[in-house]
Amino acid sequence: MDYIERGRLMNAHAELVDINNAIKVKRIKEPSKLRNETELKGFLTAFSVDQDVLSKYDVSIAMPDAKSSIGYNLVAVPKSSSGYTMAVWMESTGDAYKCEDVASAKRFSINGKCKKIGT
Fold first, then answer.
1. Which pLDDT tens digit goes with each residue over 17-54?
2. Residue 47 gets which letter from DSSP?
3. 113 burial level (CB within 10 Å; 0-12, 13-18, 19+)
4. For residue 94, what are the CA distances in angstroms to 18, 72, 73, 82, 83?
5. A Pfam family matched by this chain, by name (predicted)?
């Protein structure tokens, strides 16, 4: 089961990469767009997230720094029905973290129970 969960988590991570890239493209084409949390959430709602990922994870977006109109974080946390415990989150810079639990991912932790992906 652990191998399956880690595989699904990497699928969720890949989906966060796709969403992040789409946001960046939109911001390049329309620099005044997607500069607040409401617009970002609307974009995410309209984004065609992979159905396999959506069946196992809730994907959301947040702007942790209210003073900034640039930075945001994407997070994928497992649905309770999945039986999974690990989550993944990504900064707008592209740095991503695999977390052992949902609470750490929702806090956007960068140490402890979360480890940077790709290091």
1. 999 999 999 999 999 999 999 999 999 999 999 999 99
2. S
3. middle
4. 10, 10, 9, 26, 27
5. Pilin_PilX
d(CA 99, CA 30): 33
Going from the N-terminus, what domains does the chain have, and what CATH number goes with each?
Answer: 2-116 (3.30.540.20)
What is the Cα Rg of the chain in Å? Answer: 14
How much is the pTM? 0.94
pLDDT tens, 86-113? Answer: 999 999 999 999 999 999 999 999 999 9
Is the CB of residue 84 less than 8 Å from the CB of residue 56? yes
